[in-house]
Amino acid sequence: MTPYQRVEPFLTAVKKPARYTGGEFNTTLKDPRSVDLRVAFCFPDTYEIGMSCLGLRILYDVINRLPAVWCERAFAPWEDMRALLLRKKIPLYALESGDALSDFDVLAFTVQTELSYTNILSMLDLAGLPLRAAERDETHPIVIAGGSCAFHPEPLADFIDLFAVGEGEEVIVELMELFREKLPRVETLARAAEIEGVYVPSYYTVSYNKDGTIKAVEGKPVQKRVVRDLNSVPYPEKHIAVSTEIVHDRVMLELFRGCARGCRFCQAGHISRPVREKSPETLAKQAIAAVESSGAGEIGLVSLSTSDYAGLEALCDTLVPWCGPRRVSLSLPSLRADSFSPQLLQRAGQVRKSGLTFAPEAGSERLRNVINKNLQENDLLSACSTAFTGGWNGVKLYFMLGLPTETDEDVREIAELCGRIYRLSKTDAAGRSRRITASASCFVPKPHTPFQWEPMVAPDELLRRAGLVRGTMRKQVTFHWHEPETAYWECVLSRGDRRLGAVLERAYRLGCRMDGWRECFSPERWREAFALEGLEPDFYALRRREPDEVLPWSHISCGVSVDHLKREREKAYRAEPSKDCRNHCERCGVCR
Amino acid sequence: MNIRLAYHKTGRARFCSHLDTMRVFQQALTRVKLPLRYTEGFNPHIVLSIALPLGVGVESIAERLDFGITENISMGTLPAKLNAALPEGYHVTGAVIGGRPVSQIFYASYEILADSPIEPESVVQLFTSSAVVEKRNKKKDYIPTDIVPFIRDCQCVRSGEKLLLTVTLTAKEPILNPEYLAEAWRTYLDPEAAFTFKRTALLDGDGKAFDNSM
Question: Which residues make up the CATH 3.40.50.280 domain(s) of chain A?
Answer without folding.
Answer: 3-223
